Amino acid sequence: MSTRLADYNYELPRELIAQHPLPRREDSRMMVLHRDRQKIEHAHFVDLKKFLRDDDLVVLNNSRVLPARHFSNDGKFEFLFVEKTAPCRWKALVKPSRRFGKGTATVIQGVHAEAGEIFEDGSREILLSEEIDLRRGGAMPLPPYIKRSAVVDRHYQTEDQARYQTVFAKYEGSLAAPTAGLHFTPQILESLSHVFITLHVGTATFRPVKVEDVTQHQMHPERFSISPDAAEAIANAKRIVAVGTTTVRVLESVHRSFGKIQDGAGETNIFIYPPFQFRVVEVLLTNFHLPRSTLLMLASAFAGREFILQAYKEAVRERYRFFSYGDCTLIL
């Protein structure tokens, strides 16, 4: 198993990066990876139940995305509010960051905002003259690989409010959607035995790996919770089907901490890469992930790096749609 960053790379034509959702969530294609036979099968998400057992338990992340992307009143700066650190104080990512040094001031939603400390990761402390409501006037924090013209972006912003959110999203706090869950409709969800956990997706999930030896990469902590009912169901399940890498990270992290799945809240900075022994998750539904990303490394740990890269090569050849608004893989 390789720990070299370069060994988690693949070639992806830019036109295969999905820039908008399909008209219907359930119309996504689904590549099925059979680990035991090293076989690749092509299906659609609506076929999901055909590949599962009657006694499987599907576990999903019900975190809700906060519309935390805001612009200054003059349009010169874009802010992604990451974390509230104190009353009227936030940690935020700012574009263009070089023009928003310490002491620089602007106005957001009519509120005076000034740059405080600059942190090691490039984020800024934002000092506000009064509290602002991030839910009002904010846009969904779409990933940077979704590149649209200003006109097109405005056209899709209303749709993004609904489509960059799972139909079962409940607890607000994520900076990115748990995208494997975006394919579900209420009808498909109701047809499956399922429970929810919560992990609020932070910058750890999409922060790029910058070290060639991946073992030296550090994940930032992300908050999670598991209810008593969900913990009991997971502990007693015959087989766990995890929807998304965030769900995997919660379940495997809790089991490593306590030797079992139990209810409670906490933080995890678990980084899953090959080789890794999975103790809870036996089936994984996930989207296609960026080259050289921690998410691709997790999928490689689950299915094997060579098999994953083979599957991604075939997905490119078969013109699958990639990343957040794209198609999915089911790893059995």
Briefly, what is this?
This protein has helices at 150-163, 186-190, 203-206, 228-236, 245-258, 294-303, 305-317, and strands at residues 29-34, 39-44, 56-61, 63-65, 69-71, 78-86, 89-95, 105-108, 111-118, 124-128, 171-174, 194-199, 222-226, 239-243, 264-268, 281-287, 328-331. By secondary structure, it is an alpha/beta fold.
Oligomer: single chain
Strand content: 25-35%
Mean pLDDT: 94
What are the secondary-structure elements, in order, as H or E? EEEEEEEEEEHEHEHEHEHEEHHE
CATH class of the largest domain: Alpha Beta
Structural class: alpha/beta
The separation of the N and C termini measures 20 Å
Rg on CA atoms, Å = 20 Å
Helical amount = 10-25%
The biggest beta sheet reads:
9 strands, mixed
Instruction: Please give the domain count.
Output: 2
Question: Could you walk me through the main structural features you see in this protein, from its secondary elements to its overall organization?
Answer:
The protein is α/β, with parallel strands linked by helices and 332 residues long. It has two domains: 5-66 and 159-331, QueA-like; 69-128, QueA-like (Thrombin, subunit H). The protein contains seven helices and 17 strands. It has a nine-stranded mixed sheet. Strands 5-6-7-10-9-8 form a six-stranded antiparallel sheet, with no helix packed on it. The longest helix is centred in the middle third of the chain and has 14 residues, at 150-163. The model has no long low-confidence stretch (mean pLDDT 94).
